[in-house]
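Sequence and structure are kept together here, with a separate record for every protein. An example record follows, reproduced without changes.
>
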Amino acid sequence: MIDLHMHTTYSDGTENCETVLKKCQQKNLDYISITDHNTALVYKELENKNVKDFYNGKIIPGIELNTKVLNIPIEILGYGIDYAKMNNLVKKVYIPATERNFIEVKRLYKKCINYGIKLSNNCLDTFSSDTFASVFFHKEITKLPENRKLISDEAWESSKIFYRQYMSDPKTPLYVEMDDFVPDFETASNLIKQCGGLVFIPHIYEYKNNANNILNFILNNYSIDGIECYYTTFSNEQHFNLLNICKKNKLFISGGSDFHGKYKPDVDIGVGYGDLQIPTDILSNWINKVKVF
């Protein structure tokens, strides 16, 4: 079994790389990829460790990059990257996460006020720049029950859905413009290609109502290598649909849990909600095209 999508404390995970590797060993995973957001610094740390002390499988150097399609913020995965080169390139394209969070909070505050959302006085004074704007404002919005009529039931219950359904959708009044700090698809995917990696589209159905439009636009306008067909939240129908798309378009297949530690407490490495099973043999037609750490 494999897991090619997980995060550490180098981005938005709560577990350090040693803990992540130990969890991978406990699950007897054959191949893994740590795919932190907009950084591959975890691999620089691993250079100075005896990885076999923690994990006996093989590691494909990876990264998850923020980008946008149709003005909607999405992510792409890069596998088999030259991580040292990537760590230099991302500095030229991406601002630090704390800076991005601060910008998003200021913009979302104005959107909320204009939309009629009630917020506690001086709520921005309590904001910490290491917190996602979506998480911060979801907490603030749901403090006051009168805001419920302005937010869908599912977004009221989940900051992740609030981000996808409102902050990321240009059709909503709470959409946060990110053009000045999130690169377009071609720029982001070229970073991966410059570093010798393969470009994959992850968790496409996490983009909800925009998912099919995003995927079709990418397939019709850009060159990618594969799609993440195995994912924690995918239904059987979504899973098999993506497998068929990959077969039709001659694309590679990947899969991952999207482990974040305590930020996603129900999602465990290798098994997602508990029954995710990603077979090693999906790597058979592309593992020889990437570097293994």
Q: What stands out?
A: The chain is about 35% helix and 15% strand. The two ends are 18 Å apart (CA to CA).
